[in-house]
Amino acid sequence: QVQLVESGGGLVQAGGSLRLSCAASGRTFSSAAMAWFRQAPDKEREFVSFISPGGITDYTDSVKGRFTISRDNARNTVYLQMNSLKSEDTAVYYCAAGRIAVMGYRQYDYWGQGTQVTVSS
């Protein structure tokens, strides 16, 4: 069983930055694909970014050039650095772990409880 705990969300003005963290329990973190998804009110859960065990990353188009995903296997933690935030980035952000780094949320087996990110314009 893997437990994921997100932190780092909050309220920020447009143009500002936040760094989300996701701490994972368990000894299999280094072999897990990790991802961030987000869900805004009345919208479906949306892929944001993933990082494979080998460090391959991908992003949804709307965050490319602004968000950076990284992982620290020694700390069992994955990060999402978010810069140049926009009001449309407002959502609950979820960390997920799975066996394969893909964009589809159904492929991820474990989820955190979510952290709220609110960007004021």
Task: Report on this structure.
There is one protein chain. A hairpin with a 6-residue loop joins strand 4 and strand 5. The protein is built from no helices and eleven strands. The protein has 121 residues and is mainly β. It starts with a strand and ends with a strand. The strands form two sheets. Strands 2, 4, 5, 6, 9, 10 and 11 form a seven-stranded mixed β-sheet that branches. It has a four-stranded antiparallel β-sheet with strand order 1-3-8-7, with no helix packed on it.
Strand content: over 45%
- Count of discrete alpha- or pi-helical segments spanning 4 or more residues: 0
Q: Count the strands?
A: 11
Radius of gyration: 13 Å
Structural class: mainly beta
Low-confidence stretches: none
Distance between the termini: 40 Å
Keywords summarizing the entry:
mainly beta; 7-stranded mixed sheet; 4-stranded antiparallel sheet; 0% helix
Would you summarize the structure shown here?
This protein is mainly β and 121 residues long. It is 0% helix and 50% strand.
